[in-house]
Amino acid sequence: MGWSPHQYLKFDDERTRPARDLLAQVPLESVTNAIDLGCGPGNSTELIVARFGPVGVSGMDSDVNMLEAARKRLPGIPFVAGDLSTWRPGEPADLLFANAVFQWLPYHLDIFDRLMDGLKPGGVLAVQMPDNLAEPSHRLMEETAHNGPWRDTFKRDSARRSSLPPPATYYDRLVPKSSRVDIWHVIYNHPLPDAAAIVEWVKSTGLRPYLEKIAQRHREAFTADYLARVTQAYPAMADGRVLLRFPRLFAVAVKR
Hints:
40% of the residues lie in helices and 23% in strands. It is of the alpha/beta class. Strand 4 (93-99), helix 5 and strand 5 form a beta-alpha-beta unit.
């Protein structure tokens, strides 16, 4: 299973809102080299272009499907393939922007240290990551994984990503190379049509590693089991919709 731009963009506005909120806190007037790391289908890159103009803006991602979607969305912007676990900018950057990508990399604090070295003095590392593993949407993935004919798979090999460290850990790692570090949490509450919409949301992100690990013949049953649990955990509101609570961690570091 590859990453699906179509699935991801079913909730384009909701997924882009944190990127918009992150970019609003970037203290730069202009850029000559701004790179959207883990750009996905280009929705966050589009925000950077809208603020600073297209010159000097680029995107990188490891997934060919996402890169193809980004190039269609922003045909004048260069998008390149890269692996964030080893990548560094070819020349010092004004802005390294990362919307919802580093939560997938368990050693991202070490990567942040390397990326700070790739900034110009006064340059900015701006990062947003979901911090939602304690939410029902993700706890129920684990419940489903360990209750079904697929459970032995997850005893051998977990699909759960690592929890994020506390804010103090990020501050301590970023501040030695920074003149300013801002770290904050935002809890979004997204009204969605029903519990099935929550499942559709996470199919392109958190649920994807679970479905990848099990046999094709089990995926429909796994998804149905998970949906039943989500339906119980997210009751309908007065208008029939459900409310998806979604905490996210933000960090903006300005290079010393």
